[in-house]
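idk why but the lab printer keeps eating my pages so im just putting this in chat instead. protein + FE2/S2 (inorganic) cluster:
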Amino acid sequence: MAIRINGTDVAPPDDARVSLLDLLRDRLHLTGTKVGCNQGACGACTVLLDGERVLSCLTLAAQVDGRAVTTIEGLGADALSPLQVAFLEHDGLQCGYCTPGQICAASAMLDEIEAGVPSYITRDLSGPVTLSRDEVRERMSGNLCRCGAHNGIVDAIMAVAAERAA
Ligand code: FES
Ligand code: FES
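predcted complex ->
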């Protein structure tokens, strides 16, 4: 088997203890994915696994054998993605350390909204999910920004959601 990372098949590590985060950064030199807490609390290491967001520090590389991983390098491979452009336009970053994880999480979050997946604060579970700034805040609450760029991040995500809905 192999792990498909940004469209390229990679052999899983022989050592079953290697995390997906360490496989990406230390062995494949895909350093776009960042290390923050390394214990599941900050979201800096967020990547997409078959299109859904996961914390790569809490995921063993061996667990994703046969599955598809997308990192920030994969999202912006040919040109900046709409989210990347929006983060720039809306000042959704300062030092940028949290940004790859924020953008991977936002990418999956917008897909969740489109698929009608409710969040903890969604009031009406019977109808389509309405996007609001509070919904974005709730759904992005696992991604911390020590620079405090959260308002710009919400602005950027709302702008991309509006573009998609147009
Ligand atoms: S580095 Fe994975 S959640 Fe903080
Ligand atoms: S932009 Fe610096 S941690 Fe978020």
